[in-house]
Amino acid sequence: MKPLQLFDPASSTYSYLLFDTATREALFIDPVDSQLERDLALLRDYALKLVWTVETHAHADHITSAGQLVEHTGAQSAAPEGCGIVTAASQLGDGDVLRFGGEQVRVLHTPGHTAGSVSYLWRNHVFTGDTLLIGGCGRTDFQSGSAEALYHSITQRLFTLPDDTVVWPGHDYQGRTHSTIAAEKAGNTRIAGKSLAEFVATMAQLKLPRPARMDEALPANQNSGLGVGRQDAEGASLMEVQPAQGYAGNVSPELACQWWQAGQAVLIDVRTDAEREWVGFVPGAVALAWKQWPGMALNPQFDEALKAAVPSGGRAVMLCRSGVRSIAAAKRATELGLEAYNILEGFEGDPDDQAHRGARGGWRFRGLPWRQN
Ligand SMILES: N[C@@H](CCC(=O)N[C@@H](CS)C(=O)NCC(=O)O)C(=O)O
Ligand SMILES: [Fe+2]
Question: Are 338 and 267 within one domain?
Fold first, then answer.
């Protein structure tokens, strides 16, 4: 059985779809946003249930469709832990195993092209991302790249796989599709037979132009391709603060998640314990229920817990079910001296609330991290 190899001509990127032929559960490697419609059609035509969408690294030359695939298919996203892809639900380390049906892929940490880059091993196939290309390798001149680390990853990790292991690269700029470990060990012009010093010298002399879309692609990919350049139903950017009365502003779940993951805001979940228990929760969010009794504006317990959770004058983003209680909580937090934002559409979104409705549902439908008990 072979993986399905898919090509994005604009970036010369290969994506791969693996599946269990019995259960039809599937795993995507490095899906590309401009190919989303093709890929969704493929999943339908092959009657596949996407379980995982994974990245080999944070790409500099194209934008992933991982976040959108999560929204459309219910798959889980996973990304290498050293890549800063903060929105991926699972952060992968060396040796981790992802299962789909009776199949599994194993994570090989292969730093060098970027510090977090990984390869994925499935049966006798290895998906090398930009670590090992056919007859070449990924560049090492940005994104904490390291020629020394790449030399080690290729010679010690990939070239020690069995010779007949099939190599499936993240790109090919000359139309080649796959190779083998034996062929690359023998004939890869950048590394075969080279010493570490020779390889480092070769990499230092490449002087490649920057990828054309790098400035746009990197932040987008660290957010699973969500938000950047995308708009809600009213045409507002998902990554910009929208003005509000009585608190600092309204933000999309995507922007709130980015701030929170970057340590720039504290995420406060103002729903009740019961709601979190039944519907789901965001691991790491501060649970702090907003209770509004009729005729009772103040809630000293909430005030005290909020002050304990957020440093004085700090930034808080408020999450509730549909973005109503979180407004009240953001106003109270503002009175207490915090820079407080309401998260539009909350955890679940509200189908009846046309005024606040963005392109899609709430936090849990947008490819952002959450769990159910
Ligand atoms: N011309 C391409 C840049 C391609 C590029 O730099 N690709 C990276 C992978 S993200 C690489 O490592 N290339 C290795 C090489 O060209 O030898 C673009 O603008 O996107
Ligand atoms: Fe790359």
Answer: yes
